[in-house]
Specification:
Strands 1-2-3-4-7-6-5 form a 7-stranded antiparallel beta sheet, sandwiched between helices. Helix content is 45%, strand content 19%. The chain contains 8 helices and 7 strands, in the order ααααααβαββββββα. Strand 5 and strand 6 form a beta hairpin.
Length: 258
């Protein structure tokens, strides 16, 4: 997750409104980014100030007696005073602080977008694949259809994605098929095949490629997960797992074989 994405979600993060995956992504980003960490600290300070007792005015002890003596029902709200009490000054100061902070955050995000237009398309895509993989593990939703038979898994995708899907049986190679599901990556529905290696799950994301030329596999590591991606037969392939890099490359080689 980059700075711009973090700034868009930082308020929900402080209020504890994010799901587990996004919460962990921002938490990791704050550990590595001093600028965003400072913004987070400022928001926490402001939040603590808004719930401080200093902003609340307690009625004097003799107010009830004075109202009763004046013949006014205790439950009836008293008329608004002509002059603002001090507590409203506290609220006004808090509102001004929020406006100022929001303006600062807006300038910060704008500056980030101009200095660093964003991560590369490949980096953003890798982040989406990583988030999807973590979400499938954290939400205990690995597969929509569970089967070791490719003749069961492949037909299941009919009507769910608008492209043909190569589903290989790799149990003899040590990577048995577990099932499949439809996920959402790169602003589109993406077919996801799930394989296993011992107790490790491998998510293999497949969707049509913009370019037709094949590419060799490229590996990278993000947050203790290994990824391998390549283009073959006009389709994008992204494999991700907590398997070691060597075994995941072996898996990719088996998938790439004609």
């Amino acid at each position: 997750m980059n700075c711009a994405q973090t700034q868009n979600l930082i308020h929900a993060y402080v209020d504890g409104e994010l799901d587990l995956v996004r919460h962990l992504e921002i938490e990791h980003h704050l550990q590595d980014c001093a600028t965003c960490a400072q913004v987070h600290e400022s928001l926490q300070t402001l939040r603590a100030g808004l719930v401080s007792n200093a902003l609340y005015h307690k009625a004097p002890l003799g107010l009830r007696e004075r109202l009763q003596a004046a013949g006014r029902p205790v439950s009836r709200p008293s008329p608004l005073p002509r002059r603002f009490p001090r507590r409203w000054l506290g609220f006004a100061a808090a509102a001004a602080a929020i406006a100022l902070l929001s303006f600062g955050l807006g300038r910060f995000v704008f500056a980030q977008k101009n200095v660093d237009p964003a991560l590369s398309a490949k980096d953003l895509l890798a982040q989406e694949v990583l988030s999807s993989h973590i979400r499938s593990l954290a939400m205990n939703h690995i597969a929509d259809v569970e089967s070791t038979d490719q003749h069961t898994v492949k037909p299941w995708f009919a009507g769910k994605v608008n492209y043909t899907l190569p589903v290989k049986k790799l149990s003899e190679e040590g990577f048995p098929l577990f099932g499949g599901r439809v996920d959402y990556v790169a602003d589109q529905s993406v077919a996801t095949l799930i394989y296993q290696r011992d107790k490790h799950f491998i998510n293999l994301y497949v969707w049509p490629a913009d370019k037709q030329s094949d590419t060799e596999p490229e590996s990278e590591t993000r947050r203790d997960f290994n990824l391998v991606h390549w283009v073959r037969s006009e389709k994008n392939f992204w494999a991700i797992s907590d398997l070691n890099e060597k075994e995941l490359k072996q898996f990719a080689d088996h998938v790439r074989k004609p």
